[in-house]
Amino acid sequence: MFFSGDPTSRKRVALGGRSSKERDTQKLMEQTRMERDRRLWQRKQNASAIKIQKCFRGRKAAKAERAKVREQFLSRYGSYCQNAERCCFCPDSDYFRQLFFFFNARNAGDFTILVETCRGILNLVRDNDNIVSLFAGVDYSAVLALVDHRVKNLAYICILSLYQNSRSHFRQQLLVPDADSVMQATVLLEAVAALIDPKLPWACKAVSYLCQKNVFALFREIVLAERENAKTSSSTGNLSGVEHITGILISHSGQNSCSCPNVDPKFCFSSQMLTVPFLWKNFPSLKGVFSTQGLSQHYIHQMSLCLQNHTNLLPSDISAEYPGYACLLGNILEAAGVTLSQPACPFEMAVDLAAVSTFLLEALPPIKSSNAAMIEEDADSADDIQIVLDKDLERQIITGIDSRFLLQLPCVLLQINVLFGGISAVGDDRSVVAIGAACALLHVTFNTLPLERVMTVLAYRTELVRVLWEFMKNCHDNKRWSSLPEHLSLLPGDSPGWLLPLAVFCPVYKHMLMIVDNEEFYEQERPLSLRDIRSLIVILRQALWQLLWLNPTAPNASAKTTSRENTSKQNPNESIKHRVSIVASELLSQLQDWNNRREFTPPSDFHADGVDDFFISQAVVDGTKANEIMKLAPFLIPFTSRVKIFNSQLVAVKQRHGPHGVFARNRFTIRRDRILEDAYNQMSALSEEDLRGLIRVTFVNELGVEEAGIDGGGIFKDFMENITRAAFDVQYGLFKETVDHLLYPNPGSGLIHEQHLQFFHFLGCLLAKAMFEGVLVDIPFATFFLSKLKQKFNYLNDLPSLDPELYRHLIFLKHYQGDIAGLELYFVIVNNEYGEQTEEELLPGGRNLRVTNENVITFIHLVSNHRLNFQIRQQSSHFLRGFQQLIQKDWIDMFNEHELQLLISGSLESLDVDDLRIHTNYAGGYHKEHYVIDMFWDVIKGFSLENQKKFLKFVTGCSRGPLLGFKYLEPLFCIQRAAGNASDEALDRLPTSATCMNLLKLPPYRSKEQMEAKLLYAINAEAGFDLS
């Protein structure tokens, strides 16, 4: 309202958006664009309509012209070509020109004309007429182009007509022709066979033309049409027309001299015909043609070049049960048995066959054994698409990779002389190719087919282990691992050269060791010498450390194997690394077991070089690399380090559930003369949580009076030693002794105790409690029973400790050179428990199944399994359930059976008095240089081992020291001066102890003789804790 001093006017801003003028311009541009698009679309419609009309008019005119020519042809030659003569087929005649112009395979009249034409040609040829002169006249070279054109077109329209009518009434004539009939389909097939006869001058051009016109795809449809509609009748030995023509085509294309242009791999014989399910069942004679050495080599080489480069090489699958790659694999494997059995099978063909089989097996879903197929599938996620092959197709593939195939192919590849068991030398490059091809095939086979069908053949009937070992040994000695060809191994070129050989060598050698006897392994040193085995241990140890610690794989070691095929396809390098880490650890563990039976290499050879304090600290943390190594390959870590880890795990559990935790103190009153019954009744009433808590014991002597000792831990130790000695006594009937006085469950325990299984559960708890509390007990278990605590199976080499005589008999059978069937053995075994004999079948129907040279290995396996696993399965199972209430499985898995025995009982060697002296404390005026202390240690050193163990029990409550030495005794051993003055009355006292504190109260005796007499009296008095 008033002048502000600013002469400029304020700029006005419109808040209503764009102006109407601007909006009108935008609308006009949009309308213009739409009009332009409409006119363009109209022009395209008009052009398309013109093209359609032109095409229609053209087709209509052509159809009319064909009808016109057909009428001329029929009027001249007749509806059945009855007026056709020999001259009609000459170059100057327009017979074929007219026929090719109007012919329509779907027209019944045209089809009849074609059949009669072919019949006329066949009749003229049968009348000893020359087919070349029939088509070309006098001079073929003068009319070569015309004759070739007519011949190849005639052959093609014959096959095309069969294809077009393959779903009509001709189908039965196609595959099962009657040689004496004149059925139309047979005439056409015979005419085609005559036209492409390899002896004819135009054969190469005719075959090439047919292949380029995808004739194999037509044949495939013809065969599949028959398969869908009817079962073929049994073969009469006559070649079918389709089979005969296919044989001519593939024989010509497979010739080295053939100059035919290359056919699209997608439409070649291998892609189209070999993907027909059970091809050889319909065409048995074609199988023989294909299996000839040169022909199969050509097509298998062709496949090896194409399969890995053409993702859409194979035609569409017939159904989910018949995928093309599986049908192709089945047909190749079935024919390969014939090909490989021929003399002088080329090395190159074996390499190509291995490459193709590997590629196809890699795509195949795992085929489970009959036993494994009955278990599982519950854990699979709903998102996984399960590919289930037809059972007959599975059977064809499994039968294809039979013992003969597994014997022949590796022998050709690795140049093994099966008859003499020798290994012929091959060049470096050649050997690398052979190793790569063989290992890739076998590795994929292990992942796909049931192992029991494969391993026995490879382990016992080939020299595969020896050949692979020589290859790996040379590479290791030369410190140079050759990279395997990428196209053969299906692994990246930078993958370690030892990866694939180890993936095959380890499981095969491991399987072989299951049936190798002690004499073969230690004395005869077969299949590998002990020196070679020491080198193998180094290779496996270094490979495992590389895979697990230095360069760990991505998949978790505990990942389920059910998804192994998915992992393999997504990342084959990581998958095979994970697989090698498993099989190499299993083999090393097995070799460690052999070394424990009879040492052939220092135990430190199994330990990795890189295990340090940092590694040990990480090993107790879940999810770390060190923890995974501890679970998968614990032998890489020294035994003492694993014991420390085990003890730390026990301490951690005790800290979580200590005396101030949820566990109440449990007090047992135990009668010494009824120790087993009282312990069973009171301990069985405890829950799993109570078992982890403290247990305090009060003993009642034979007079019914409670002993004076107060349990601070020492009485409990004494209780554990006494109860285990009573419970595991063979007189009680729950356990038996081997010839080496080692304990194992009594198979006949049920005949003695009705509640024997409950007792075994109790004994498992008892042993676990001793280990949980760190109490060493003197119970020597048999190795084959300790393996049950690790849930492992026992094999033949464990049998000598149980039944040496049976072991000798089985080894006799294994090496028997005569006819085993003459020994009249059957698949049964006789059990003899307490004079009661029972007969059990090792297999269903075993009473009627005789042992022969072919199945003797199976018989030996079954007998060993029965004695070592089956007979004690119930007792071991209940013992294990009780044991695992306190001791977790992964804690025990850190140790092998030999180490587990040390964990239970400690070392069997003499007591280390010097170690005890170093780790001893003194009180009450004593010190390490006191004259009484010097006398004391001299007396203890002079004791026998038995008296030393009694002394240790007297002062600690346990007759064995800590596993890692007295440094780990809790608390440390202490000697305290007793009897303040040195009066005669005071020196007449006996030494006393407080086992809960590992304390010895020792009067200052004046002489060694007096001290020795007093100590011996005290430790042998067996006065319980009345001397405490």
TrEMBL record:
Span list, region Disordered: 1-26, 556-575
Domain HECT residue range list: 687-1028
Class in the EC hierarchy, top level: transferase
Cross-referenced InterPro entries: E3A/B/C-like, HECT_dom, Hect_E3_ubiquitin_ligase
Active site location: C996 (glycyl thioester intermediate)
GO terms (BP aspect): protein polyubiquitination; ubiquitin-dependent protein catabolic process
Reaction catalyzed: S-ubiquitinyl-[E2 ubiquitin-conjugating enzyme]-L-cysteine + [acceptor protein]-L-lysine = [E2 ubiquitin-conjugating enzyme]-L-cysteine + N(6)-ubiquitinyl-[acceptor protein]-L-lysine
Name under which the protein is recorded: HECT-type E3 ubiquitin transferase
Organism of this sequence: Linum tenue
